[in-house]
Amino acid sequence: MLAAPPSMSPSQPVDAHTFPSTMRPQAPLKRAHTTTTPTEQTTTTPSPPTKRPKLATSSSATANPLELKPLGNLIFRPSAHLTRTQGLGILSILPDELLLSHIFSALDGEDLVRAQGVSKAFFGWTRVEGIWKGLYIERTRGRLHRWRGSWRASYVRTFLLPPSESSDGDEPLPTSLITTPSHHSDVLFQPCLCAAFDPCRFFRSNNFVSNIPRISGKNLLPSDLPQEPCILTDLMTTWSAIDPTSTHQWTLPRLASRFPNTLFRAEATLTTLPSYETYHDRCELDESPLYLFDSEYVNKTQSLDAEGKNLGLGGDYEVPLCFGEDLFGVMEGERPDYRWLIVGPTRSGSVSGSRAQGSDSLRLTFSCLFPKTWHQDPNGTSAWNAITTGSKAWIMFPPSLTPPGVHVSEDQGQVEAPLALSEWFMSYWDYAVGTYGPQGKDAALRDRMKVGICREGEVFYVPSGWWHIVVNLEPSIAVTQNYVSQRELASVLRFMRDRPDQVSGFKRPRTEQDQTRELVQKEDCDELVSDVFELFVQGLKKEHGEMVEKALEEIGGMKKAVSSVSGRKEGNGVHDEKSRTKGMWEKVKEDQGDEGGFSFGFGGEEFEKEDEEGGSRS
């Protein structure tokens, strides 16, 4: 049950429009606040960054249009419980969790509209954006078309209203102004907290200390890269993508104008850039905004002029010299996905390379349909992330230290963590900073968490195995690539050899995919070819024989030793002190069972892929 914040007087209720920054709800922890974007300046950095202008101010649209209250506020208004008991009738005997997962989530769009007229309580449950999000994506077969300001409005205007009414621009629906201030529910109030999440408040100058160094990347060689994360400058000066005088500068309006008909992947949806731009600018009610994260952007936009110059997105930037060595190149067409175009509004971020983890259908309703919190880059690779527009906050933990709130299975194949960025920040940020930050109390743990802000024109370096989350402090566009150099080759080979079921991104050649279509339908579309480890080693031996022999010797050869699966070990994302440093999330799981993470496979995976292939070029 969510309680009133301790900073408020005992007689003062939580107002629906006031999310005090000191609020500490319970199980799961949330912290509420208003949505602002102040100027951020680090107080202490190894190399002070150039002063930046104020971050863009986000929309003032309320994240709680129904004026819902947390359950704990019933103490100030006991009679309000009648809204639930009388409004739900016999259904009031069910807990809110079951009402969501087994009653209202089972209704289709037409039934939800009918049910909203039963009572205020029914109206509140039929307005859950997470339900409408799933219905919209299912009904559109994974396509994001015209956005109307919310998932509910988009569904109703697209599928339920007659054409004469569905085209009334962005006028609010007749029911959009109805409020239910007497409705108290933690389950319904949680998405409001997430939608009001303001990442900038965690990085204000008065309480934020960066401990990720900035160094010049000019003339830097792969062997010169440090063993820890860093922010590199002077690497993007010649890129058209950040040149304000170039028509190829990467801003969302310009990209939408250049490629108006090309379909891009945005989590569980495919969308054109004009459609995504509309969503991007008006997604205040979405607790976990869609993140455009597309691995085929180079092929989708590629075109050549008369001189053979690439006019697509791949021609707008160049791989920095220090990241030029990529040994996965020996696999040519069978190499894994390795580069992504990233676009997202404020609050969005951190989509990992793997599809999902855990199993919790209830929390799936409120999720973004893809996991968006802590992850390690796939296949043991390192990565670089170059920002062409905006700024991103990075939080990092070394491979040997599992972040607070994250559970890793014995074989490290399953990761359970809060589903949304906002959940982790509001539940674990203070604990993480106080324990592992630059000013941590325990000297043995101090400064092990790395935090920093990467800005426009800078490149963030992610070493192999490092845990990280990333959140946009303002609308941002970036390009990122994963790679394998000589430095991490042994780690990548060990990962591929010892954990083949966790290797992701590899594709069969198209002819082979066609022959095994039935198998692919039953497996994830990124399922590994069984002998990919051997193929990679064979390719390396042709071009880098001495290098691969040395790496194989380091990991003990082509065959996995029996002792290597004996349990958890240092250096593979496992925190040996976790048993004595459990956070609230772990304690809640012990009390309530398996409630973290989820496993999600969208029913339209095959036809989404076909749509993407059929309409991917402008």
Radius of gyration: 25 Å
**CATH superfamily annotation of the largest domain:** Cupin
Order the strands across the largest sheet as they lie in space: 1-2-13-8-15-6-5
> What is the count of β-strands?
16
Shape: globular
Question: If classified by CATH, what would the architecture of the largest domain be?
Answer: Sandwich
Mean pLDDT metric: 79
Assign a percent range to the helix content: 25-40%
DSSP strand content: 5-15%
The CATH class assignment of the largest domain is: Mainly Beta
- How many helices? The count is 20
Structural class: alpha+beta
Number of domains: 2
Briefly note the CATH topology name of the largest domain.
Jelly Rolls
Unreliable parts: 1-60, 352-371, 513-529, 563-589, 591-610, 612-618
Domain JmjC: 308-500
GO molecular function: cis-regulatory region sequence-specific DNA binding
Biased composition (Gly residues): 595-604
Biased composition (Acidic residues): 605-618
